[in-house]
Structure formats: structure tokens, C-alpha cells
Design goal:
Number of helices: 2
Number of strands: 0
Distance between the termini: 10 Å
Largest sheet: none
Strand content: under 5%
Amino acid sequence: MTQKELSYVEDAIGHETNIISIASDISEKLDDEELVSFMEEEIENHTSMKERLMNLLEEKTNE
């Protein structure tokens, strides 16, 4: 993986972290249970994506 590709993965991890943070803040302020459920699902999706990206970065670091 090139340095440019590694930088892209690091940026993507940062974006996922921001999305998780924003979604969590929004979820805490919602009263509608359907919306809360949707936001929690989105948080799970983005957390999963962040973990996959971190694993990819770790694999490439260990090579």
C-alpha cells in the first residue's frame, strides 16, 4: 500500500470517528424512538466500518 493510500485510510478513520460522534450526539437529543433506533443502527454501521479500516491499517503496518 502506498503512502497516499495509507493517508486515505487514516483520513477515512477520522471521518468515521466524526460521524460516530455526531450521530451519538444527535441520538441523545431525540425523543422519537424510531429515529433513535435508526441513529443507533447508523452508529453500529459506522463503528463497524471504522474497525475494518483500523484492522486494514494494522495489517499493513505489520507487513
